[in-house]
Amino acid sequence: MTTDESRDTDRAFRSAATFTLSVLGAALLTMVVALVWMSTQSGDCTDSMMECAGDEKYLLVFGPPLVLILGGVTAFVRTYQVWRAGGRWFVWQGAGWMLFVLMLIYAAASSRALLDV
Q1: Which has more pLDDT, 21 or 12?
Q2: Among 10, 36, 76, 100, which is 20 to 30 Å from 19 by CA?
Q3: Whole-structure pTM value
């Protein structure tokens, strides 16, 4: 591997990693905003904060997965663009799959909140 190829690989990895961390940060920020909104809106809910939650419950359940799936689709579009240009596309594909898997994990874990009534 030449120095130029190594530099291109490093640059591709850095840009994909930066994008992935930015999407994860946006999903985390969405979750934190929903939790703060829920904590200020729930009055005297002694058993569960979810019992008294209104629309903010839907932001908590659907917001972060939506951010993650949009990030995953964007990473796959970027994969195709880099592949067409002849670049190092595999790091973008890995970023897309990672975001999709995290979206599924979060959606499965948070879906129980819809059942707490």
Answers
A1: 21
A2: 36
A3: 0.83
